[in-house]
Design a protein that fits this description.
By secondary structure, the protein is mainly alpha-helical. The protein has twelve helices and no strands. It comes from Nibricoccus aquaticus.
């Protein structure tokens, strides 16, 4: 796999970031801290897989924070109702895919802009979960729910392995299958993709369905770590995920991007807060630096787009 300038720049930035704790900071490189850093960012990575696909197809989904919360609540309620965990997983992922499919239908069949569609579903789902639960957290979950009943020490490496396998499968499929390449074709030129035999509305619908299913999977990886489920979880998740995807080199206008770049974006943005905590840097600087990185990425993409248009 050849690395582009964006990936090389991100690798350099990550190397510098992870080198900072070497200067008189203890505890950052312990196995426990690095493991927690990885585990904390797995849900973002899984959701970012779906967001990469959606943005490559020249769409956007800002409802994922609400879908994340609703799917987590559904998983908890299903577990409390006595469903075995395999069925809890299937039910939760199916619900996420249905929410994504609703977004996809409104965008692809009714022509409603994705930003408007997903803004609407974001508000509706967020208010629906508050109404349904009264804002109360879901508690008294069965022992089989937390860490899937495997215990923390056993489940953590399985979580990491599962997320990396899922990531590798999607990364391979996007580049090496006709279905994966169809997202790039539609995102690059909607009309041209139609002329070569693709059905753009179906491709867009598939992108949103995958986004919903992967958001549900991210919710499972997140909420099964805790004894209770926060019904207000997922606030700001869409911004973290979109930022990681854009920083990773996926063009916000569609047609270009890679999951490897997204992975680097997740690592860079996800590690800043932890590194700054160990360096005793004011937390306000974390958001400022993240914003600067995102702005630099957008400016770079804009300049690249103008250069490609000129040639």
């Amino acid at each position: 796999m050849s690395l582009g300038k964006r990936e090389l720049a991100l690798l350099a930035a990550i190397a510098v970031l992870f080198a900072l704790p070497l200067f008189g900071v203890s505890g950052f490189y312990t196995l426990g801290n690095l493991r927690n850093l990885v585990i904390d960012n797995l849900p973002v990575l899984i959701a970012a897989i779906g967001m990469t696909i959606v943005i490559v197809a020249a769409q956007i989904d800002i409802s994922i924070g609400s879908v994340f919360a609703v799917c987590g609540a559904l998983a908890g309620l299903a577990a409390k109702a006595g469903l075995p965990m395999p069925l809890v997983v299937l039910t939760t992922v199916a619900a996420g895919a249905a929410f994504g499919g609703l977004n996809g239908l409104l965008v692809s069949r009714f022509g409603i802009p994705a930003i408007i569609t997903t803004l609407g579903t974001m508000v509706i789902l967020r208010n629906a979960i508050i109404r349904a639960t009264g804002g109360d957290w879901i508690q008294d979950l069965p022992s089989s729910f937390q860490w899937f009943g495997l215990g923390q020490q056993t489940a953590q490496p399985l979580y990491i392995a599962s997320a990396l396998i899922l990531f590798a499968l999607f990364a391979w499929a996007l580049r090496n299958t006709s279905a994966g390449r169809s997202f790039y074709a539609v995102g690059c030129d909607h009309e041209a993709s139609r002329r070569i035999g693709l059905n753009p509305p179906n491709v867009v619908l598939a992108a949103f369905v995958l986004m919903g299913a992967l958001t549900a999977a991210a919710a499972l990886l997140n909420f099964t770590r805790y004894p209770t489920i926060e019904t207000n979880a997922g606030l700001g998740l869409e911004l973290k995920v979109i930022a990681a995807v854009v920083v990773g080199g996926t063009a916000i206008t569609g047609g270009r991007g890679s999951l490897f770049g997204t992975l680097l974006g997740v690592i860079l943005l996800g590690a800043i807060g932890t590194v700054f905590t160990f360096l005793h840097v004011n937390p306000a600087w974390e958001k400022a630096i993240q914003g600067a990185i995102i702005l630099a990425a957008v400016v770079s993409d804009t300049a690249l787009g103008k250069k490609e248009a000129a040639t």
